[in-house]
Design a protein that fits this description.
alpha/beta, Rossmann fold, six-stranded parallel β-sheet, three-stranded parallel β-sheet, 11 strands, binds NADPH dihydro-nicotinamide-adenine-dinucleotide phosphate
Length: about 300
């Protein structure tokens, strides 16, 4: 029997409408228009598309989207100056440095410079630490989008074995943290799972994946996870975005997964749109927190 498709696009649209309504309420109640400032360095075509999509999504939600475009040969100190200026700008509530940065620029240094209160990507070590302790300031966008998707499709995670493949700081590691968290501390009630975090050195990966009630693939290798790797009835969340000739494919072989799993996210139209929706939510949360602290201070 074919699996159910978990429609990230529709879910994200719904979340974006909810955020737009909250933005209206916040502004009507005297709050400032939330503002997300993006920094785009160089002319990587994929990054340009991502930034454009994020800006359009902002506009539709009533969030101001600003953009600083810098040439690929910008110096480290010039880039840090831009981030510093945005940190100090009272009209900016969220800062997003589009990754990857061109060769020669130190990503870590730049991300560490972003004011933790405006760090809507949740990359700043202070925010990573808060997340680890189960009291996040911002939820990392892609993992939080996946939690929302599971929650809204009423897929239980408590007591389930989740296998996360990939241990990046952006997806795999925070994903594992969110799902292993105590209920409710890191978003809606998608938590309390038993999590295995697999990576390139995991022995017998296929067997590990086969033990997962829920499999989350964040590897960046086209169609690496095959149908025969999956437990029958598993839920499959495919984070991977890989360009193969003229089409985008995930890290999971979609057609094979559809035959074995109970639910699968498509690529495109799965996790990607949710990531953007969560970014908008974090920008509103940042605007609220900054506004509140100014009013109380
Ligand atoms: P990274 O390259 O940072 O991390 C990839 C991870 O996969 C690493 O932990 C690596 O292991 C692991 N890995 C690589 N090869 C294998 C293998 N053969 N077997 C098992 N594990 C392996 O990638 P990201 O996490 O940034 O991104 C992963 C994918 O998700 C990409 O396709 C990216 O485009 C996509 N993505 C999608 C987003 C969305 O919104 N939908 C957002 C962010 C990313 P090791 O640590 O041992 O090297």
């Amino acid at each position: 029997m074919a699996a159910r498709i978990l429609d990230g696009k529709q879910t994200a649209l719904k979340i974006r409408e909810e955020i737009a309504a909250e933005v209206r309420q916040f502004v009507d109640a005297g709050g400032p228009t939330p503002c997300l400032a993006a920094v785009l360095v160089g002319d990587d075509p994929a990054s340009q598309v991502y930034v454009r999509n994020k800006q359009r999504a902002c506009e539709k939600a009533g969030i101001e989207g600003r953009l600083d475009r810098l040439p690929a040969d910008v110096s480290q100190s010039e880039l840090l100056d831009v981030v510093r200026r945005l940190n100090e700008d009272d009209g900016v509530h969220g800062i997003l440095v589009q990754l990857p940065l061109p060769r020669g620029l130190d990503e870590r240094l730049v991300l560490d410079m972003v004011d933790a209160r405006k760090d809507v990507d949740a990359f700043n070590p202070c925010n990573v630490g808060l997340l680890m302790q189960g009291r996040p300031r911002f939820l990392p966008c892609t993992p939080a989008g996946i939690v929302q998707l599971l929650h809204r499709y009423e897929i239980p995670t408590a007591g389930k074995h989740v296998v996360v493949v990939g241990r990046s700081d952006i997806v795999g590691k925070p994903m594992a943290m969110l799902l292993a968290a105590r209920d409710g501390s890191c978003g809606p009630s998608a938590a309390n799972a038993t999590v295995t975090l697999a990576h390139s050195r995991t022995a017998d990966l296929a067997e590990v994946v086969r033990s997962g009630d829920i499999v989350i693939a964040a590897v960046g290798r086209p169609e690496m996870i095959r149908g025969e790797w999956l437990k029958p009835g598993a839920v499959v969340v495919d984070v991977g975005i890989n360009r193969v000739e003229d089409r985008l494919v995930g890290d999971v072989h979609f057609d094979e997964a559809m035959e074995v799993a109970s639910a699968v996210t498509p690529v495109p139209g799965g996790v990607g749109p949710l990531t953007i929706a969560m970014l908008l939510g974090n920008t509103l949360a940042a605007a609220r927190a900054i506004h509140q602290s100014r009013n109380s201070g």
